[in-house]
Amino acid sequence: MDLFEQLAQTLEERKSADPSASYVASLYAKGLDKILEKVGEESFETVLAAKNVKANGEGKEALIYETADLWFHLLVMLSQLGISPDEVMNELARREGLSGLEEKASRSK
Ligand SMILES: N=c1c2ncn([C@@H]3O[C@H](COP(=O)(O)OP(=O)(O)OP(=O)(O)O)[C@@H](O)[C@H]3O)c2ncn1[C@@H]1O[C@H](COP(=O)(O)O)[C@@H](O)[C@H]1O
């Protein structure tokens, strides 16, 4: 089992956990809008961290930290909506070897 699958299993288990004892359960209890707010916040923080690396060549650890926060909150969002990380992986696998430029050009044909 890979880390995403393992985490997805933990997130599923947290659906019946006490919100006062689990961060994930507290997010579920607050609802999808709160989860989406966290995804937006973590996306913004990831972009800021990446810009800092670009400007100063420093802060790669901060960028890794923020990216982990973002991936984690995306997994919580997917879990809340009943979508497994495997389904996203399958979509990426389907695209493997398909040039993004060719795919975009084929849309207008
Ligand atoms: N990977 C993570 C993980 N990454 C980040 N976070 C939490 O995500 C939150 C994001 O940070 P913020 O500073 O934005 O949080 P905050 O200020 O408390 O948020 P707001 O209340 O302001 O919205 C922090 O509380 C982090 O601890 C995580 N919490 C849990 N996990 C995984 O989820 C599992 C289940 O967690 P619990 O449900 O808490 O047991 C854990 O065992 C971990 O594997």
TrEMBL record:
It holds the Pfam family PRA-PH. SUPFAM superfamilies: all-alpha NTP pyrophosphatases. InterPro entries: HisE, PRib-ATP_PPHydrolase-like. Its main location: cytoplasm. The gene is hisE. Its EC number is 3.6.1.31. It catalyses: 1-(5-phospho-beta-D-ribosyl)-ATP + H2O = 1-(5-phospho-beta-D-ribosyl)-5'-AMP + diphosphate + H(+). Pathway: Amino-acid biosynthesis; L-histidine biosynthesis; L-histidine from 5-phospho-alpha-D-ribose 1-diphosphate: step 2/9. Belongs to the PRA-PH family. This is Phosphoribosyl-ATP pyrophosphatase. Keywords: Amino-acid biosynthesis, ATP-binding, Cytoplasm, Histidine biosynthesis, Hydrolase, Nucleotide-binding. It is an enzyme of class 3 (hydrolase). It comes from the Bacteria. It is found in: Cytoplasm. One of its GO terms (biological process) is L-histidine biosynthetic process. GO terms for cellular component: cytoplasm. GO terms for molecular function: ATP binding; phosphoribosyl-ATP diphosphatase activity.
